Amino acid sequence: MGKVDLGKKKFEFDALETLYRNFIAPTFEIIIDGTNIVKQSIAVSTVNVNMRADATADSFTFSVVNAYDVVKREFQWVDTYLAVGKYVEIKMGYTDKLQTLLYGLITEVSYDYPNTGVPTLKVSGLDISFLMMKGKIWHSYQKMAYSKIVGIISKKYLPNIVMDATEKVHDNVSKFDMSDYHFIKWMAEESNRDFFVLGNTLYFREPLKEKVPVTTLTFGKNLKSYNTTMNLSAQVTEVIVRGYDIDKREVVEAKSGSVDILGGNSKTGKDVMKALPSGENMKEYIYTAMDNVADAKKKADAVMNQRSMELVSGSGTSIGLPELQAGRYLELAGLGSKLNQVMYIKSVSHTINNSGYACSFMVGGNAI
């Protein structure tokens, strides 16, 4: 239960069209306490799932239009299926082909008594990472790599983890005034790892590693709308990380290397900045407690790649596809050679309502 498959396979759009029977009959399931509440005469008008690949919990909302008993003047199901704290699994798709998009908890129930019409309920919630964000208990880990620590913490909340191990063993790593979630986020930033939760799986992986796009969306066909921006404001020519080796009493310094380019374009923000007047001086310095060049170099490369991914941003809408998931890649077409690129999916919103099933998404890239 709650397994979301962040696959590595590319789907041809025609194959998806066949799989989902021409996208004719959008449908969803909301499973609470092992029961699909849609089959319990609970009328849900709109379902929305927001998936993100950053340090933000995935979220969901759905509206129940028949929860109010006009005779008893009471809301039904609020102490059973629709109670805060209940675990929820949400699936979306077409006809009998559905995929799990979110596994989490109900964190909020809103009661709406309108001026006219029948009162309704709005149910909202967050994925399991919500639990990881609570509490700031101090803890210390000795003689462990970051990935080992992440594995220990993850087991408290989630049954699955996708991990790219880190090599360095640290004498002592302490968690001060941070939740488990933000502690892992800090370790991810220190070791150049992507960190996010999807379904019942925690991801702690090397960035820009699995670049296979989930599918191709073409403007004028299945990409309904798209807009993009190229912005130099966060770009630098180099990231320099400095620390200090106490034993050797000397400064430790490392510089970022080349940018790992995504897509077919070749000019990064670093390249553009270098070509500007005084471009070589547009460097970012980071001062840390790191005491060796290897760690400083990883930090420098990580920050450089993070900055580079802010060069290109885009947002679009398409027909609803369960395969569109934050943390994967998407190929765009029909936009001209400059913009027909593979992009990283930063976030996706899946919505099913009276108008059908649609997706809106945000993507990022690092080359123009």
**Distance linking N and C termini:** 41 Å
Could you describe the largest sheet, including whether it forms a barrel?
Answer: 13 strands, mixed
Q: SSE string, helix = H, strand = E?
A: HEEEEEEEEEHEHEEHEEEEEEHEHEEEE
Helix content: 10-25%
Give a short overview.
The protein has 368 residues and is mainly beta. The protein has helices at 13-19, 129-132, 146-154, 180-191, 269-274, 293-308; strands at residues 26-32, 35-36, 44-52, 59-64, 68-69, 74-75, 87-94, 97-112, 120-127, 139-144, 160-163, 170-175, 194-198, 201-205, 213-218, 223-230, 238-245, 250-255, 283-287, 312-319, 329-333, 342-353, 356-365. The strands form five sheets. Strands 1, 2, 3, 4, 7, 8, 9, 15, 16, 20, 21, 22 and 23 form a 13-stranded mixed β-sheet that branches.
Can you put this structure into words, describing what you see?
The chain is mostly beta strands. Helix content is 15%, strand content 42%. It has 6 helices and 23 strands. The protein has helices at 13-19, 129-132, 146-154, 180-191, 269-274, 293-308; strands spanning 26-32, 35-36, 44-52, 59-64, 68-69, 74-75, 87-94, 97-112, 120-127, 139-144, 160-163, 170-175, 194-198, 201-205, 213-218, 223-230, 238-245, 250-255, 283-287, 312-319, 329-333, 342-353, 356-365. The strands form 5 sheets. Strands 1, 2, 3, 4, 7, 8, 9, 15, 16, 20, 21, 22 and 23 form a 13-stranded mixed β-sheet that branches. The chain has a 3-stranded mixed β-sheet with strand order 11-14-13. Strand 21 and strand 22 form a beta hairpin. Helix 3 runs antiparallel to helix 4. It is globular and about 80 Å long. It starts with 12 loop residues before the first helix and ends with a strand. The mean pLDDT is 92.
